[in-house]
Design brief:
Strand 2 and strand 3 form a beta hairpin. The radius of gyration is 26 Å and the shape is globular. The chain has a domain of 205 residues: Aminopeptidase (3-Layer(aba) Sandwich), CATH 3.40.630.40. The strands form 2 sheets. The protein has a 6-stranded mixed β-sheet with strand order 4-1-5-8-6-7, with helices on both faces. The protein has a two-stranded antiparallel sheet with strand order 2-3. Helix 5 packs across helix 8. The protein is built from 9 helices and 8 strands. The protein is 29% helix and 12% strand. With 302 residues, it is an alpha/beta fold. The termini are far apart.
């Protein structure tokens, strides 16, 4: 399936190859006492104690660049307690899909639902430290809303970006991550740009793009209900393939989850602090241009 790219002209850097890189990466007021004597002006004026000064509104800084931004994190999988996962819900294209699909698992039985939940919690902490308001789709390691409920919650949150986290049930020989966006994109170029920015952040952390799907770590798809139903800019990140023996063995390691969370943090920051693309200057109309002959003083003979 062809990958849609915006016209921003982003440099697509090749990612480092091999799973060894994955293992290497994922392994860093004085309080006023009130004893000062009152000033002359304070003794002469009647001060209304109820007129407290409004606290200054926080603005983004280099240390907290995500102030004023909202991020919706959706660690995938898990149906609501007491509801069968096979219950059909809208898929965003006029059809239906199960409320939740079964999570994949490593050879040792470590579940995708737990992996993405723990990774999302670490990521949420990083983003809050940077000033973002973070909303999680679920607070339980194994249960959560149906697919359509998650998309509705993301829209209600007014998120500037929603990130859906998965670990792909790929072929045993396959490895690596990929970032998916809706096809066609739901929000002009925003979804595509977000997918590439997060892809680049993962690659910058020496993670390897998928060996079995997508194009250089990015996949345009019409088959993901989470993307089809999205009411805000949304990307779906398949972090790893638990079915791969080597990759799957790494996922239960807390330092591995922390490494993924840091890479995702970098991607979210890149998305939400990117400068808007400058509007292209319209091409001048042929009739508005001075003819070359007139500019040079030449004339065409009758």
């Amino acid at each position: 399936m062809p990958i849609l790219r915006s016209a921003l002209g982003r440099d697509r850097r090749p990612a480092a190859a091999g799973l060894a890189a994955l293992a290497l990466l994922l392994g860093a007021c004085t309080i006023p006492t009130g004893d000062d004597p009152p000033s002359a002006s304070a003794t002469e004026e009647q001060v209304d104690p109820s007129a407290a000064e409004e606290p200054a509104e926080e603005v983004p800084t280099a240390e907290r660049p995500l102030v004023g931004k909202t991020v919706f994190l959706d660690p995938a999988h898990g149906a609501p307690d007491g509801l069968e996962s096979e219950v059909e819900v809208p898929d965003g294209h006029g059809g239906t899909v199960p409320c939740a699909v079964d999570a994949s698992a490593t050879e040792a039985g470590y579940g995708e639902d737990e992996f993405v939940y723990e990774t999302a919690r670490i990521l949420a902490g990083h983003l809050r430290e940077l000033g973002a308001t973070v909303v999680l789709s679920r607070e339980d390691p194994h249960a959560g809303p149906c697919l359509h409920g998650r998309a509705e919650a993301a829209a209600e949150s007014g998120a500037d970006l929603a990130v859906v986290l998965h670990a792909d049930a790929g072929p045993e020989a396959g490895f690596g991550f990929h970032v998916a966006h809706a096809d066609p994109p739901a929000d002009d170029a925003a979804d595509v740009d977000a997918a590439w920015a997060i892809r680049d952040a993962l690659a910058d952390r020496q993670l390897t793009p998928s060996s079995y799907t997508g194009q250089d770590g990015v996949l345009a798809t019409a088959e993901a209900a989470e993307l089809n139903l999205a009411g805000v800019p949304t990307v779906l990140v398949q972090l790893a393939n638990p079915a791969n023996t080597i990759e799957g063995a790494l996922l239960p390691d807390p330092t591995v989850r922390s490494g993924y969370a840091r890479a995702l943090r970098d991607g979210v920051v890149a998305v939400l602090t990117a400068e808007p693309a400058a509007a292209a200057e319209p091409a001048p109309d042929a009739e508005s241009q001075d003819p070359v002959g007139a500019e040079s003083g030449d004339s065409t003979p009758d």
